[in-house]
Write a structure and sequence with these properties.
single chain; Immunoglobulin-like; three-stranded antiparallel sheet; 36% strand
Amino acid sequence: MKQRSVLLAVLSLVVLALVTIGPAVAFAGEISTPFQGKDVNHGTVTHEVKAGRHVLTLFSDFEVPGTPDPHWQVVDSRGNVYLLDRLKPHEDKINTSIMVPAYVRDIAKAQIWCAWAELLLGEASFSKPIVASRGR
């Protein structure tokens, strides 16, 4: 009986802690399928909400393609494509995370696009579109 009371008290504290700090902590949300394409064939991307903003983040196993101008790109469930920021803004920096703009309604796929050659390098899909629009 005493063990049960202790276990119940510990579980209550854990639940209380999660409820209290939950909004401040960004838990990983959806994980995409592995990238597939001409030059990008492995690695995944995760979606999570941080401070009310939708963020896509590449897993550490993602390898940046050797093309001249790779960019982040997302596709919504209607097939609309949104070209976002450069994957490599500088030779020594990689944008492994990107905030999805408010005008994107949902996210069905993440893509890596070569803006120089205008070529899709690889894409990763989510199991279902992630609603990203904030009512605009």
